[in-house]
Write a structure and sequence with these properties.
By secondary structure, the protein is an alpha+beta fold. The N terminus is likely disordered. Helix 9 runs antiparallel to helix 11 and helix 15 runs antiparallel to helix 16. It starts with a strand and ends in a 24-residue tail after the last strand. Strands 4, 11, 12, 13, 14, 15, 19 and 24 form an 8-stranded mixed sheet that branches. A 5-stranded mixed sheet has the order 21-20-22-16-23. The protein has a 4-stranded antiparallel sheet with strand order 7-8-10-9, covered by helices on one side. The longest helix has 18 residues.
Length: 596
């Protein structure tokens, strides 16, 4: 096997790596990704010795280089840090099991009528209360549906999950004052009527609306002003979650205290402090015992693996990093993504070539200690029911990349080693990436080198990586100066691609829509897809389509490793919310002071 030498650059140092691979290997990396997904370096749960004390303050590290934006309700939160905080003060209507299937535990039960194209949702109790003591009824659930469907709604949740409700489109366009498909039965029950029934309705985060909002508060605030409201930011957020917010240090930390009205009983902890901690300092912070729980940066595994005051648990992370191409814009007037056939990156062979130029497995081994690695599909092995292990991915193949560019007409006209556009003019591709940690800085520089090796002049937009919140603002605003970008997201528990890549999906940052893709998504969302064999076939078709069109190229997936201080009695990485023993409100400490 031919050796290839790769140089990973960072601001701090240059690291030379020799990795094993074949430049002419067209095979998928799926078998490796699938194997890696089924095993982890650490257990999925831990129980520490000691007797639990009463109360105590748990310190939870939010490991990120970026301050949180401070939007603490699920309907409006748009990044993972805000959502992590919001999840403690807000509450979904439904719970789910280890297979991501909805259960009739939690706030509500759900009954499906596939033939009648409806679901009936009923609260499991009549004495639920918001954290301010006001009663929670089905009106608050209906209000959340109407809020997201409102034409002035500023968040990103309005998608096929909502437009599928009968009458929603007319309501959204202001043609009606109510949604005809939302039928209130009584104060604790609602029947939702849909245009079509979807298999993902049975899944957590799937096609059934799950958000709730305190109507008694938000009904008096204009929808377009919600994001700036004190009931969205700060310590006045009213929710159904286990905690309420006692104090906010803007962008830096949130102190949570028990919600005395929480329907599952009072949390065992007296307080939880969730605080932003830089990836560059988290190892020393955990060693000093300054935090009880933290997701550790894979790039620093060698530095943290031997800490003695913590125990590590891990699981395959339902998230991935990716490279995407700016191929159009989001038309706010129509609420649709519009693909530009003349976009700089519109040639599919150019996009495919940029995918084949990347040696993601080598990057994962060198920069992330093998905890991260390449994948063959945007449908992850996490979704074992629909993931296609045989799907061909973008395995490292620079010779194929060069061949694709030649075929597409991107050739080096003047002999300087850099390819020109098809018409012979200068081709410069602007690449944007968000600021994360030193390993990411190194990876970004390596991307530029790999693309240069196949003759492409790819320049880092602004000359540096961009602070995360600012980065996503630019991406969502379709900054015309950005041609290609590296980003990442959690996939949630529903693999249905419509909410991320559909014509109306605001998260479709590539703005790529075509008839074939839309047709496949329709099949995934059809009643025929209730047949599991057909559903799997439709997902195979989707995965092949994404690979062929290459509007998005998945890069890194892997383990999420969590450090747990030895004073935390029990912790696990269980997927299920129904029956889980490690949600924050259930955690206990064995000492007032952390293990050091």
């Amino acid at each position: 096997m031919k050796k290839k030498s790769l140089v990973f650059l960072s601001a701090a140092a240059a690291l030379t790596l020799a990795a094993c691979g074949s430049e002419n290997n067209n095979s998928s990396t799926s078998s490796e990704a699938s194997k890696a997904a089924s095993k982890s370096k650490f257990s999925s749960e831990v129980t520490h010795e000691g007797t639990a004390i009463e109360g105590g303050t748990l310190k939870y590290a939010l490991v990120t280089p970026t301050k949180f934006s401070g939007i603490f309700i699920d309907e409006l939160a748009s990044n993972s840090t805000d959502s992590t905080i919001a999840s403690q003060v807000d509450q979904s209507m439904f719970e789910y099991d280890e297979n991501r299937k909805l259960t009739n535990t939690g706030l509500a039960s759900i009954e499906f009528d596939v033939e009648g194209k409806s679901v009936t949702i009923k609260l499991n109790a009549k004495d639920y209360k918001w954290s301010d003591g006001k009663p929670f009824t089905i009106d608050d659930y209906i209000f959340a549906i109407e809020a997201i469907g409102n034409k002035d709604y500023t968040g990103t949740r309005y998608n096929d999950r909502y437009t599928n409700i009968v009458g929603m489109k007319d309501f959204h366009e202001g043609k009606t004052d109510s949604i005809s498909g939302v039928e209130k039965v009584d104060d604790y029950t609602v029947k939702l009527h849909f245009e079509k029934m979807l298999p993902s309705m049975q899944l957590a985060g799937g096609a059934i609306p799950a958000y709730t909002m305190p109507k008694h508060i938000f009904k008096d605030i204009p929808v377009k002003e919600w994001e700036q409201s004190e009931y969205v930011r700060g310590d006045k957020v009213v929710g159904l979650g286990a905690f309420t917010i006692e104090k906010v240090v803007a962008g830096e930390s949130v102190t949570l205290v028990p919600n005395k009205h929480y329907y599952k009983g009072s949390p065992k902890l007296k307080k939880v402090v969730m605080q932003i901690v830089s990836p560059n300092t988290i190892v020393s912070e955990m060693k000093a015992g300054n935090y009880d729980i933290a997701t550790m940066p894979s790039a620093q595994y060698e530095a943290f693996k031997d800490l003695t005051n913590v125990t590590y648990v891990s699981s395959f992370a339902p998230s991935y990093e990716y490279i995407a191409f700016h191929l159009g814009k989001f038309d706010k007037t129509t609420g649709k993504n519009v693909t530009d056939p003349n976009a700089k990156m519109s040639d599919v062979k150019l996009r495919q070539a940029m995918g084949y130029a990347l040696d993601i497995d080598a990057a994962g081994e060198s920069l992330y200690n093998g905890l991260n690695y390449g994948t063959n599909s945007i449908i992850l092995p996490f979704f074992k029911d629909v993931y296609n292990a045989e799907q061909e991915g973008f395995a490292y193949n620079p010779e194929k990349a060069k061949q694709l560019l030649d075929e597409a007409g991107y050739k080096d006209v003047d002999g300087d080693g850099i390819r020109e556009s098809k018409d012979g003019s200068k081709l410069q591709i602007n690449f944007a990436a968000r600021t994360r940690d030193d390993a990411n800085e190194s990876l970004v520089q390596q991307y530029l080198l790999w693309w240069k090796e196949i003759g492409l002049d790819v320049q880092l937009y602004t000359g540096r990586t961009i602070e995360s919140n600012n980065f996503y603002e630019k991406i969502q605003a379709d900054d015309p100066e950005i041609d290609v970008f590296a980003a990442g997201w959690g996939v949630g528990y529903d693999p249905n691609p419509a909410n991320l890549f559909g014509e109306t999906a605001k998260f479709n940052f590539a703005r790529y829509v075509n008839e074939k893709g839309t047709e496949i998504m329709k099949k995934i969302s059809s009643t025929e897809a209730f047949d599991e064999a057909k559903l799997k076939d439709y997902y195979k078709e989707w995965q092949a389509y994404v690979k062929d069109e290459a509007f998005i190229i998945p890069t890194l997936v892997g383990d999420s490793v969590t450090a747990v201080n030895k004073r935390v009695k029990y912790y696990d990485t269980a997927l299920a919310t129904s029956g889980s023993k490690a949600q924050l409100y259930q955690l206990e400490l064995t000492s007032d002071t952390p293990a050091k």
